[in-house]
Each structure stands twice: as structure tokens, then as C-alpha cells.
Protein 1
Amino acid sequence: MRNERGWRDGRSDEALLGAIALGDEEAGIAFVRRYQRRVYGLAYSIVGEAALAEDVAQEALLRAWSHAAVYDTRRGSVAGWLLTITRNLAVDTLRLRRSLTIDPEAMARLDLASVESPEEAAETDEAARAVRSALTLLPPEQRRALLYAAFYGLTAKEVAEREAIPLGTAKTRIRSGLMKVRQALSSAGTPVGLKKAGEE
Amino acid sequence: MARLQSSGGCEPTRDLLFELALGSLNGAERSIALSHLEVCEACRRQLAELSGAADQLLLGAPEMEPPVGFEVRLIEQVASRSPRRAGDRRRGRLRKTALALALLAGGGGLGAGVALAASSSQAASGPRAVRLAAFRVRGGGGGVAAIEAGRPSLLVMRVEGLTGSYWVSCVLSDGSRLATLGRFNLSGGSGHWSARIPALISSSKVRTAELLGPGGQVLARADFSR
Ligand SMILES: [Zn+2]
């Protein structure tokens, strides 16, 4: 069942995008199968509502599909590119609906996701695990500030307001949070973070 | 000093790179940072590193199974957004057919056979209309069904998360029900299956396809009329 999804196509992400750019629709579908759970999961974590999350996820995958030809391999991983598209669409969607309303439950899910359980660990791949274990290295208030900025696109000023802390403190939390995550991921080896971080 | 500030030197920019990498820098600060980055290689490198980490953070979000029918709806959007030249409806339809077949065949296994059968009949009878419907089985599992109009018309199913023996039938627009279109066995949890729709029945009259358990109970309906 689940194991059939996505990974059956052994081509790399870059190869799939290249094929999509040439009009190979099976490659497009393989790409969708490979990433739909991630894209939908991220969209849902941010917008906190199934119908809205589906709209965001569909739009993100459609954009990746139609922009496959202009994807620049020097710009980092395909997953990072696709998830950034997803994140931006989700944040735009939230901002369009009044000011930014963050569903506290969705935030809790993200926060919880950084503390992995063994069953979860079996399901997610190395890159996701590396990120999660890097996040567990942060003090909770730093992690929160970083997640607000990274997932919900909140500016330092908005984080300060939300957490009722001075602007300088918000900036420091975001920066040290990102620095620590970056160190944890790069000390784990590859710059794209395909190895587990935070164990040595 | 003041001049440096307004054009954005390394010092003020380094401070802004974090938020820029996280995608949460707006307004004047954003333009200060961007104009400095235009001319400073060192800050560009720093930004690239931070952006890499920021992008990777997004990988940490929990994965979730999208709602049933997600792929079908996506494929319909891909087909409808494809660049269409004037008067080229036929091409749009072919494209939708190709996408639907790719969707149904995407998992390997029986898929190759399905695609082969479909493309050979396609060659014989030209472009075919495809209708898609998703279905969900209570208690888990589901899939996608497609009706391809043509000679012969085909009902194609892709199922996931099911094990055992199943019958497939369909209900026509006048409410009558075919006794059966066929049956299949699944052991691996997922696969593809296809059957000819009897030539006496116009495929446009098929309203729903039904998945039946061994006792004849209806487990799921794929509704093409929606
Ligand atoms: Zn500089």
C-alpha cells in the first residue's frame, strides 16, 4: 500500500524534473507520488484545515510541474525548492484570510514532530529525521521562534508581538536557532543533510 | 558611515540575512539586503548557506496522506491548464487521456498491460474521452477508476490498500445494474485492473462503478456523474 507510493520510480529528483520539462507525464505523476505526502503534510501543518491544505498542495505541485524546466540544480535540493514553494503559498493563503491566524494545534503538531517516536522514525526518511533531531537541540522558546519564522513567514517583529518579548530577543532567538540547526545539519556531513545530525 | 548604511554594507546585511533566508524579510530592510547582495560575494555565500538550512527545516514537517482523489483532481488541473492552441480540443482530450492512463498505470505491476491495451485501442479508434472518479473503501483502502470511451470502452481501476478477492460492477444512468464486469484478486495491497464495457452499453451511460466484496456487498462506489 503505502510503500508503493512514489519511490517505485528509481530516478533522482533532478532526473524526474528534467523528464517533466520534456513533457514526460509519467515522470510528473511519479514526482507527485513521491512528494504529495510531504507537500500536503507541510501545507496542513501551516493552514490547519484539510480543504485549504489540499488547494495549497495542489497549487504547489502544479507550479513545480510547470516550472520544472527552470529549476536550477545549483539552488539546493529539489525537496527544499518544492517545500519552499509550498510554504510560500500556504503563508500567502493565510495572510489573505485576514491577518495571520496561526492554528495553535498546527503549531503543536510541528513542535511535536521534532520529538520523534520510533514508529515515526521508521516512516520518515533520513533528511526529515536529521532536521527533527537538530530541532530537539534547541531550547523550546528558540525552537518556537524559529518555527514561526520558517514555517509561518513571521517577521522578527511579529514573533516579538506574539511571544510578548522585545524585538531584539526575537531576532536573537531566530538567529541562534537557525545557526544551531545549520551547524547540526552540516556537522552531520553532507550540506544537503541526508545524514543524521546531532549524535556526535 | 552613513553612506555605507544607506547602501547596506556587510554589517547591517549580515543581520538581515537570517530573516531573508527564512523568507520573512519585507519592505525597506529587504531592499537594503538585496542591493548589498548584488555586489557582495561573501554575503551571497553566507545567504546560500543559511537558505539551505532554512529550506531543509521544511523537511521536518510531518508527512500526511492527502485526501482520496487528490491525484485525480491534480491531473484534471494539469490537463486543463496545458497550453491550448485555438481549436485544439482534440489535443486537450488526448492529453487528458494520456495523463489518466499514466495515473492509472503509475504503480507498475499490471499497469504496463493496461497502458498497452489502452494505447493499442487508442491507435485503432483515435482520441478517447476519459472520465475519472476516486473511491474510498470504509475501513481503509481506495483507488481511482476511469472510464475510457471508445471501441471497446474500458473500465480501468487502480486500487490501494486492499487484499482479497473483489467483484466489479456498474450502475447505469437509468438505475439499472450490470450483474458483473469482472473480478480480481489482490495480495500485495495494490494493483491495476481493467475490463471491457460490453459493446451494447454506451460508456457515457455508466454512472458509477462499484467494488463488491466476496459476499456481494458494495464496498465502494466511484461516482462518474460528479
Ligand atoms: Zn557583504
Protein 2
Amino acid sequence: MNTKYFKQIWAHLRQDPVVSIISVLGTALSIFLIMLVVMLQQVKVAPFSPESNRSRILYAQYISISNKKWGDGSSNGPMDVKIAKELYKSLKTPEAVTIYSVCTIPAVISIPNSGTITTDALLTDADFWHVFDFRFIKGKPYDQVSFDAAIPSIVMAESMARQLFGNIDIIGKNVEFNYTSYRIVGIVKDVSTLASTAYAQVWVPYTTTSYINNIWCEVGGSFSTAILARSRKDFSAIRTECNQQLAISNKKLSEKGYKILSRNRPYDQEKKTITYGANIEPDINADHRQKIIIFIILLLVPAINLSSMTQSRLRRRIAEIGIRRAFGSTRSKLLKNIITESFIVSLLAGIIGLIFCFAFAYLGTDILFAQPYQSTFCQPTIDTSILMQPATFLYALGFCFVLNLLSSLIPAWRASRINIVNALNGKIK
Amino acid sequence: MITLTGINKIYRTREIETQALENVNLEVNKGEFLSIMGPSGCGKSTLLNIMGLLDTPTNGTITINGTSTEKMKDRTLAEFRNRMIGFVFQSFHLINSLNVIDNVELPLTYRKISAKESRHLAEEVLQKVGLSHRMHHMPSELSGGQCQRVAIARAIVGDPEIILADEPTGNLDSKMGTEVMDILHRLNKEEGRTIIMVTHNEEQAKQTSRTIRFFDGRQVE
Ligand SMILES: Nc1ncnc2c1ncn2[C@@H]1O[C@H](COP(=O)(O)OP(=O)(O)O)[C@@H](O)[C@H]1O
Ligand SMILES: [Mg+2]
């Protein structure tokens, strides 16, 4: 492609500035809306620190249990540490498995001679720091030994440390966490609430808390499990292994009339994001269908409008079409030219739309990403590492392409069919 | 070079049926400068468009350089137009959003040819028509005579054997018309191109090697 293309496009855009601006902005707006939808999904599935391994993590957030005595009923919720270890920690295929509290827990934290602050605390094991890639600014995570020994250690987000101490040179100092003294072992970069699993303001070993004693229905508790596979290819092997393990556990439980329902757990990142309850398995196909319908509507409506604009623009260039054909353009070459030209314009509009979208994500983060079922002390925050996902740009490019095809294919095809002499004479038919 | 046999062209619209050409048989020889005359509406443009493969006859056959064009597909037709024929129209038909040199290069964009060579060829033909100094102007900045010279440059840049000119001086005053005619004569004499030109001007017709006359879709002379 050469500059001639761009020069001509520019000349055409300038010929009728009002129509050009409307159609470029129209395209930009549709790409903006589509990309908002994409982005809402992207923050849930795209990798960013500390959830950089999202693509190779399997989650067992909940457990479901039934009992002979209950008929069809089942009990669903987070699981006990013991069953989590039995079902998942025992697996051979994964790279690492972590057990952590199902959600953040409101906790109070204080240092001597100051007031208390309420924080979001996550209770974890030592492998948690392997599965998730936190950025440690100071110190390091608590290790397996201190976890096993239930030594009260705490990892803190930078902003929390600054709020408490005014600085972050505090490794080895003590804080009161829920009225117990904990030693600060590490400071990490703040985590956005959009990292829905790893987010917290402070992290402590669950062995140091009483939540491990909260057990219901034999296997229910307060914890979830995340399994880090070496690669996605291992997912099916891990699932097979999970099912074998489940059968063993169920055999033991059957003595008391209990049975764990698998509900096809564990789930990958995408399926996890559409899990709204522990008592049903999310339907990924229905979710895809729903999203496709949304995208079709978001694309089709502007495409129809843009199509008529492309049509009227081509009508004004009818003689040019005749000239090009007279000097040797084939129909298909003409079609290609028109579509390429309008694709360049769509791409320009798409870039504008994407910029709008990023700007909106920054400025309207809390409106856009407010998570309805999540109650955290922090607002969601967004940064370039979350937004600048290669996949986002590919989606934008793809949608531009589809939108352009939808809006220019029919007008371009018609233009390429016009009788040459008529076109030269400025007649449409 | 071009042989037309039994050409009929009927335009059908909802209301009327116009027989624009009626049993036209014509042989154009290589290197000829043929002029076509006749009153307006007698079918001259229709004939030229059919010869230039821009339109198809209702019946009859066209043979160019011994090749029948009857069953040609879009691709081959486009290739033929591109390689064999250069058009010059009464109203110039330059692309307004392209500058002079880009307009001239148009036929070459449909060939496999490097950008550098294409530019070089375009510069060469612009020199021939005396417009090297207007290369980067837009068509709207040129006079009618200059536009028509650009159009001639475009018609010959691809080195076609045949030039079809439909009233090339129709929109020009006599001075500019003479300039254009001089160029056409040079292309015919010096480069041996076959030229078929529609004209209303008896003087111009006299200077060509042969003149045929049309009346009401029929060749009368
Ligand atoms: N696209 C068309 N549809 C209907 N009639 C046409 C069309 N083009 C030309 N004609 C008719 O065919 C006849 C010949 O036209 P044309 O070849 O343009 O004549 P000339 O160039 O000799 O003035 C005229 O009567 C004209 O009205
Ligand atoms: Mg005419």
C-alpha cells in the first residue's frame, strides 16, 4: 500500500467534512461501546499482576454436598481446609495449589499509640505466593515453615503500610491484627480489586486465624482453592485426577451418608467469572450466546447506519468508479479498493473509539467496574498493565474489521456491478 | 486491428426501445487515424464504448487483434482494456481527488509494476504532453486544455495500441483544441498508434486518414 491511498482518502474526507465527521465519530462511538463490553470482560479474564497466571489457573471456589437424608437437596459454599487438601493439594499434575479464604475478611489493624484501621484481609497458605505473582517492594512472603508453625506474619499493601507508618521501612516491625501481634514480613505493590482472587490490603497465614475451625456439613468451611497448572494443556489431566480424588473422598464420606457433587469443578478463569452461586454450574455456552447476541446488536445497528453513509459517498464517486473500470480495474479489484479504503477510515475511527474507551476506563473506573457482589474497602483501580492487553487491541481490530465489512460490503459490491458507461455518465444503474 | 461484425445495440427502458446501432460492420486497420462523424444521438459514443469493451452489443461480434471478445470474463476484459486501449473522453474524466501524476499512473496501478517505474513512465508521458511542470497540481487547478492533455497522458501511459477519443476537443476552445489535436496526430504518426476519434469538426476530420459517417445508428458513408 502506498501514500496515494491515504492522500485520496484524506481528499475524500475533506470533500464533505460533515458527513465524514459524522461517520468517523459514528464508527468511533460504536467501537467505544463494543470495547467497553470487551473491557468489562477483559478485566475478568486477561492476565495482569498479581493474577498474571489466570490462563493456567483452575479454581474450586466452592464445594457442594448432598446427603441421603436430604433427598434432592444440597448444601453449597466454600470448603474446609481438610477437604481442600484431600481433594486438591494431593494432586500430582499441577505446578502449585493454594488454599485461601473465599473472600477478603474485614479486619482491624493498628500500631501502638494510634487508632485502628479497617482493612480487607485475605487468609492464605504459603503456596499462594507462588500461584499469584505479587510485586514485593520490601521483604518477602511468609514461607511454608512459618505457615506450618502458625507464626503470626503479615504481608501488607504499600498504601496500607504508608497509612499506618507513614513509610515502608517497616519490615520486622509488629502490628496488631485483630488484636493479635503480627510481624510484618513483606510489603507489596497495591492490588486492584479487579484482581478478584488475589486482592486484599493485608495477607496472613490462615493457620494463625480461627476461621479454620468454621466447619459445616463435614466438608464445608471458609476456603477456596486455586490450582496452577504448568500449562492449559494439563487441564484435562488435572480434572481427571480431581475426579479420581473425589471418588476416594466420596467413598469415605458415604459412611455418614454424604456425597460431594462435582458440578464439573474446578473451573477455568472464564467460567469462574460467571459463577454467581455455589449451587449451580454456570453455563458457559449460554454465556457465549448471550455475549454474541450483544455484539451482533452493537455491530449491526451502527453498521446499517454507516452502510447508508458509505452508499451515499460512493454515489458521489460514481464517475471515478467508471474511470477505474475503463482503465483496467476488475470488479474484484474495485471491491477490494473500496473496502480497503473504508477499512482505513474505520481503523482511524476505531483508534479514536479505543482512546475514548481507555479514557473512560480511567476516569470512570468505579462506575464501569463496580462489582455488584463484592464488598471491599478499596475502589477498583485500573492501570496500563490491566488495560493494555494485546487481546484488547486484537478485539478492537477485529471489531473494526467486521463493522467495516458489514457497512461497506453491500455498497461496494453494488458499485462494482454498475455498468461502466452508466457510471462514467454519473448514472447509478 | 479491430473488426466489428453485425453490431446491433438496443437500449431498452421501461417506456421506450432505442436502436442505437443497427448492423454496423467496420474494420479498423493498424496505424489508422479514423474519425467518426454524425449528428448527435446517432450512436457514435455507443459505438466507441463497444469498441473499447466498456459496453456489450446486443448482438454482433468484436475482434481485437484477432481475438474475439465475445466470451471474455470480467478479468480478461479488464486486462484487455488496460493493455490494449486508452480512452480520452469529452469531459476528461480525471479523478478529482488525485493529483495530475497520480491520475496519469492510474492504468499502471492495475499492472504488476514497481512504484518507481510507474512514476518514471508517468513523468515521461507528462513530458510528451508538455505538462511536466503541473505534475503535483490537482485537476481543479488546470485549464480544460491541460486537463485533456493529462487525460491523453493517462491514455498512453500504459502504451496501448489503440486510442479511443470521444469528442476530445468538444469542451475546448479552438486554440486548446488544436493543441490536443496536434498531440493526437503525433501519437499516430510518430508512435504508430491506432486512433479512433468521434468529432463534430469537419476540419479535424479532414486531417485524419479516414472518416466514416453515421446517421440514426447506421453507417452511411
Ligand atoms: N444508457 C442509455 N439508455 C437508453 N438510451 C441510450 C443510452 N445511451 C444512449 N442512448 C440512446 O442511444 C442513442 C445513441 O446515443 P449516443 O451513442 O450517445 O449518441 P452520440 O454519441 O452519437 O450522440 C441516443 O438516442 C441515446 O438517447
Ligand atoms: Mg456522444
